[in-house]
Request: fold
Amino acid sequence: KGQVDLIEMKAYVYDGGANEDYTVTDIPADLVDICELKRTELIETLSNYDDELMEAYLDGQEVSVEMLKRAIRKATLSVEFFPVLCADALSNQGIKPLLDAIIDYIKTENVQKLLNTIYMLKDNYPKEVLNNLMNILGTHDTSRILSVIESFCCEDSEKVFNLFKIATLLQFTLLGVPCVFYGDEIGLKGEGAPYCRVCFDWKNQNKAYQNWYKYLGVLRSDPAFANGELNVISAKNAVFIFDRTVGFHKVVICVNVGSKPEQIELNNYYKSYKTKKNVSKNQTILPYDFKIFYR
Reply:
């Protein structure tokens, strides 16, 4: 039915439907004892990597969430402790938070769920795990992302493609590793199983989608997206702005999923990622569009 987070001591319960939506709730009564035992085992293991945690545990004090997260980071860096993200491919459990958040953002034109999901992931997992998240927008058990976007964009093919580009841009530039479901790169469609599992169409390949994925591949090769820190600059209504930074190199992603142009002000002087030329601090992001800057 779901999973238990031993750090926060909360349960993630899935509804069993085709979309496998979930709610965060208290741990079921029949699992409390075993979860407390497993959390104790986790604390005992992590105490070998963090003196403050060990002292708190031996003194009978409460081990805080912050202590656990810090100890997990230290243990992971030692290459002796390996956190993993729990997921079930058959029931589509454990893989949906970022997928759902991106779709919700482009559908509702409200960035709040995406913002909350990013903070949730950053708060619950060390950077070494976040950098290896499998970022998906569709699987063999979910509707293809192109069909999902078409379901609320009707027949506006230009808008569909623009929102598709924004969704995949986020997939490639947020924390984690982008994982492309075969056929997305040629504009393949399919609503739910088994239609999302159709064969690759070698005869009908949409070149616009292919060229877009080629661009994403080049963009992704930027070192900022391999292990750069993520910082949210602005998240208001339809506009989401964040940067990825590694050393002195910074890349800024600005997206607008709304129907109106939005004025933004950059917090420094940058160059356009597209033209490689200097740009002014005041910028306009057109509807269903994006801009990328760097310095």
In short: Residues 89-94 have pLDDT under 50 and may be disordered. The first strand starts at residue 2 and ends at 5. Residues 157-173 form the longest helix (17 residues). The chain is about 35% helix and 20% strand.
